[in-house]
Amino acid sequence: MLSGMTSTELQEWSLFYRDHYFNDHLLDAHFANLSHLVISLMCKNDMTPASFSLLHPDKKDIEPSDDQLMLLAEGITGGIRYGAGSR
Questions:
Q1: pLDDT of 9-36, one tens digit each?
Q2: pLDDT tens for residues 26-81?
Q3: What's the Cα-to-Cα distance from 1 to each of 9, 21, 58, 61, rounded to whole Å?
Q4: Cα distance between residue 38 and residue 41, in whole Å
Q5: Other CB atoms closer than 10 Å to residue 37's CB: what's the count?
Q6: What's the predicted TM-score (pTM) here?
Q7: What share of the chain is helix, strand, coil (3-state, %, to 5)?
Q8: Where do the Minor tail T domain residues begin and end (predicted)?
Q9: C-alpha–C-alpha distance, residues 39 and 7, integer Å
């Protein structure tokens, strides 16, 4: 990685690293991978290392229903209503 960097990029990287340490994220990644390895050896489970991460828990995307989307669209200025709410 360093062989592809210029001296200016290396200097900018060192300045950035002084303010933004990666210790917490690195430790979390190591322990998540270790936990995943132990569980996968013992249980043969379909889990990923992200399942064990403490800093980045899984965020479930909830898709809104069609009715919710239509209610949101009714509030848009100049929008045209379709379906049961239309005139």
A1: 989 888 888 887 778 888 888 999 999 8
A2: 888 899 999 989 888 888 777 888 888 888 766 677 888 888 888 877 767 665 65
A3: 11, 19, 30, 35
A4: 5
A5: 12
A6: 0.44
A7: 60, 0, 40
A8: 6-79
A9: 43
